[in-house]
Fold each of these.
Amino acid sequence: MLKYFTLLMVVLMTVVVSFGCKSTKQAAYSAAGNWKFHVSNTPNGDYDGKLVLSKTDNGYTGYLEADGSQINLSNIVLDEENKLTADFSFSGNDLKLKGIFTGDAFAGFIVAGYDNYPMAAERTK
């Protein structure tokens, strides 16, 4: 009888604990949208423009827009820590965009060889 009582208590405790626990899994972050950016300290001065990211079934697509030009991004990766990497070409140079999203803000760099140029962006509404 004690054996059945112990088994019943274990089953009841398992049910109580499983219903009492809330899931702590958060929804995945989405960087999709329009972002106003500022890149500073480049050899050609500072740049202001727009970063546009779109979420697809296969990840992200996007582009940078500044001074009337649109520059497509490729190999866009947003990891589980909201770190972004993307490749693009500008004035014949292969460049990389790297940084991290925190809510509606982005902080990172444009990487050109061994040089890094600070980039900050804010999501526009």
Amino acid sequence: MCSANRVLFAQSGLTFFLCLLACRPIAAQPQYTITDFGAARQNGVGVVRASLINNRGQVAGTVLTRQGDTHACLWEQGKTTDLGTLGGNYSEPFAISNIGQIVGISNSAHGDQHAFLWQQGEMRDLGTLGGRTSHAYCINDLGQVLGLSEAADGKTHAFLWQQGKLQDLGGVGAMYGGYYLNNHGQALFSEADGPAGPEHVYLWEKGHKTDIGTLGGKFVYPIGLDDMGRVLGDSSLKNGEFHYFVWEAGKMTDIGAVPRVKTRVGNGYAVFLHGNNALEAVGSLGSVDTTMRAVVYRHGVVIDLNTLISSHSGWTLTFGMSLNDNGQIICSGKFQGSVHTCLLTPIAK
């Protein structure tokens, strides 16, 4: 399962004020070892800013070049590979498949941003739907790619790329959330009817688009899409409260309230960025007046990842960015006074 929530948070320009949740422990949680990728703001080259992980433990992120450019990169077993660009000075990955294919965006030699597919040492330009720009957000293990492109009329359309061809999935409204693509070619994306909503999450399959609805309110947010076509997310109720849900085969089931607390800046909720096939998810909790904490959502419980690493590690994990089906997690956090990214690996029992 692939997702691109992290990407859209960055692109939307929105500021999310998060809450501090009272995390309650559950039995048999794994403990983790930490692999440090280095300080994200370190002056110099070769420091990986990790953001994505697949089921093989391959990690995608960005790396700073000697020229000061930012390039997409692949990290595997301690070795970092610079993926290059489409001719410009910038590239960034948004998804990695379980066979090591990577998609994202890159500047071309002319300055336009185009979707790319990297595989076997080569970066390929996926083109556009007639406009100047395109972005690739997801790739599944079949090699299908989900993204957005400017069309010839200047409007934004979703696309599915497969076997060398772009398929136009139609125009999209104001995007506010994540994109997902599973290994059966089902795609999930979200849009809003303007800045104030209402919001919609659509499941696309074989040319048909289904609005999965809400739990009665105006707002709905996807967290994950698994290979069975199940959607994990949260939605507002008619009374304005938020609950988690699982949507399956046309039915949305309420699975419990999203914890909420009051802070100096008001109420807020946890934000989850990436889910796996077990309908687990990672993200962050906190607010502008509290310390950010990386968290994992498992079986209806939100767990602070800082409770699952050694208390003597020196780390404060602040953001969970990606996880795979084997329980490995990519996080950012603070270590020795600097911002680092790291890989958490469960300790075998």
Amino acid sequence: MRFASRTAAAFVMFAQLFVAAAPAPAAATVHERLTALARQFVFVMAQRHPLEATGLGISGYDGTLETPSEAYRAQDLHLLRAWEADLHAIAPPSGSLTLVDRDDATLLQAQIGASIRALTVYNIDRKDYSGPANAVV
């Protein structure tokens, strides 16, 4: 029994030394964080809006439809504004970024901003743009 407790203590001490000696994970670069945010934006919105996913060529959501409601719209706006805040935290407008990172942040801001404006200014989810076409048929 005493041998087992010494072995266990030695194992715990070795594990602690191993963990302490292991290098800390490198902090994600601005580019990696921007890429992760863009990927999250595209694929979460694709999941929430399967018809748009099909239009973008993203498979896996075929056969599903969204159920539009005011709560769903509010969730979309909440997600978009959270991503916009994350973008400003990753790449502040006054920050010093590489040219590539600055351009990526600008393009992502334009895409997120366009999605916000589509819901708040243009109300695309509340309008029936197919009305004139349906009148012809």
Amino acid sequence: MDFCAGPSLGDADAAPPGEVWAAIDPLVASLASGRGGDEVAGLAGYGVRYVLLAAGTSKSLIPVLDGEPGLRRLASASGEVLWRIAGITSRARLIAGATATPLDVVVAPAGAAWVGIDPYLDQVIATGPVGRELIVGAVAAPGWRATLVGKDGSVQQVLESQVPTGQLGWSQGFTAPAGSGQVVISFDQGQRTLWLWLQFAVLFVLVVLALPSRQRRDPDPDDPDTNVDSAPESNSRIEPGSATQSNVIIR
């Protein structure tokens, strides 16, 4: 059984480590058992939109998933069966009581090779009652930060972090402002950025040390291969009439 959140530009070619799926494994097991719990809502909280039954999988799972509340079969071809998860499947949502409103997260621009997680969300929140929650479809971590910014981009308010209740208790949540305003949610990767710069500096030093060095060697007078004509001329100048070994005759 595969879960699809839709392809995005800049998706990594390598699969994430196995521990990333540890929180989803119990939801998958409950979904395949047909117990009819809140596993569909849990998958929607991760931004999962589709459930795909791969070819070659036991066909006994088809009626189980057909009878699962919140799943609607879309297509069946070449031994594969595709279901759509009903309800809100956004990776960010605004919750006011029993009402959930999907929010648009920042995506990569067309043609971009990669886009970071900063900001994760940058959107105007409408006016609503006190006690609303901003839920991010990502695991809670100290690096998450939500702010209410003004028209000039200045920070007007830092939103308080909180733990969502119910099935979304694993995710990052914030207390939404009562009034309308531009909300920016980002993740501070300062520690990771520092390590990347440190690795770059070490790599630069290693490259410099690996470059061939230029050596200067003085000619050896005892070496027969040394070219005598290439030896530097003496700065001393012989004056006319001066006594040298070539113009002095001893009888």
